Amino acid sequence: MRLNGAEILCEALLREGVEVIFGYPGGAVLPLYDALYKYSQLRHIQVRHEQGAAHAADAYFRAGGKIGVCVATSGPGATNLVTGLMNAKADSIPMVAITGQVARSAIGKESFQECPTLAITQPCTKKNYMVRSADEVADTVHEAFVVARKGRPGPVLIDFPRDVQLEEAELKPTPPPPNGSRSIFLESKRKLEHAATLINESQRPIIIAGHGVLMSGASGELKQLAERNDIPVANTLLGLGSFPRTHRLSLGMLGMHGTYWANYAVNEADVVLGVGVRFDDRVVGNPDTFAPEAKLIHIDSDPSQVGRNLRVDAPLIGDAKVVLRALMPLIKGRRRRDWLQQIETSKREHPFPQVPENANLPPQFVMAQLDALVREDGDTVVVTGVGQHQMWVAQFVSFNHPDSLVTSGAQGVMGFELPAAVGAQIARPGATVWSVCGDGGFQMTVQELATIADEGLPVKLVVINNGYLGMVRQWQELFFHKHLKATPITSPDFIKLAEAYGIPGLRVSQRREVLPALRRAREHAGPFLLDMVVDGEVNVYPMMKPGGAFAETMEDPRWTGLRDMVG
Ligand SMILES: Cc1cc2nc3c(=O)[nH]c(=O)nc-3n(C[C@H](O)[C@H](O)[C@H](O)COP(=O)(O)OP(=O)(O)OC[C@H]3O[C@@H](n4cnc5c(N)ncnc54)[C@H](O)[C@@H]3O)c2cc1C
Ligand SMILES: Cc1ncc(C[n+]2csc(CCOP(=O)(O)OP(=O)(O)O)c2C)c(N)n1
Ligand SMILES: [Mg+2]
Question: In the 8-state DSSP scheme, what is residue 554?
Answer without folding.
Answer: B
